[in-house]
Amino acid sequence: MRGMAEKSWAVDRGGNAEGRIMTFCQGNVEGCQADEGLCSICRNVMACSQHGHADAGAWAHTAGRFLMTKEALADALNGFSYPFDLPKQFVRAAHDAGLVVVFGASDDLMEFRGAIADEIEAYGGTTVLLTADGIFENDTCRSQCRYFTQAKALAQEYGKTIEACWDQEGYSWIYRTIIPHVTFDVIEDGEKYCRGIVFALADAGK
């Protein structure tokens, strides 16, 4: 952090994750010094926030820690190029903040990163049921197990769904859900490929 000059938030949309994280600093932080024991993300935002440079809307202060918000994460991811996967810095930030990032890959995959790390077959589109604990797994006993039936009924009552939609609204992939979320675009050859979403896992349960 020492000597880091102000950067534009629009800089390096091609995929420099560290550059995007650094741009949470909104001013010149000459002389800032953070705890070297923190990870690079926490070190950057802690140093900046101590001097009034951090974007107040980007990080939530919880139990003595600064956690990334869904709005900030979606903004940071917006404009990345396909093929896309969540850079490891953002995976950790999302996980620590209880955030889930959903995006598409190829023509048949629904990807989850952050508080959920999974990959769902989605050829032609699919719907995934979630609770505050994560993805409700598909029935492995063909609905004959009364315990599964009871569990699924509870998940449907208290959980929420995400619908993966193929080839709609000018995108290869978009996602529809009533879970409060923020969207971001992944670009392929100058065209919109995927409209991904970021949401808090806690919001997947009622």
Category by helix and strand content: alpha+beta
Low-confidence stretches: 1-57
Task: Write down how many β-strands occur, each being a DSSP E stretch of 2 or more residues.
Answer: 12
The CA-CA distance between the termini, in Å, is 41 Å
Spell the H/E element sequence: HHEEHEHEEEEEHEEEE
The proportion of residues forming helix, as a percent range, comes to 10-25%
**Largest beta sheet, briefly?**
6 strands, mixed
Taken from the alpha-carbon principal axes, the silhouette is: globular
Rounded to an integer in angstroms, the radius of gyration calculated over CA atoms is 19 Å
Oligomer: single chain
| Mean of pLDDT | 75
Adjacency order of strands in the biggest sheet:
3-11-12-4-5-6
- DSSP helical segment count: 5
Beta content comes to: 25-35%
What does this molecule look like?
- The protein has helices spanning 17-22, 40-50, 70-77, 88-97, 146-158; strands spanning 59-62, 65-68, 80-81, 99-105, 109-114, 118-121, 126-131, 134-135, 160-168, 171-177, 181-188, 191-200.
- It has 206 residues and is an alpha+beta fold.
- A hairpin with a 2-residue loop joins strand 1 and strand 2 (65-68).
- The longest helix is centred in the C-terminal third of the chain and has 13 residues, at 146-158.
- The protein starts with 16 loop residues before the first helix and ends in a 6-residue tail after the last strand.
- Residues 1-57 have low confidence and may be disordered.
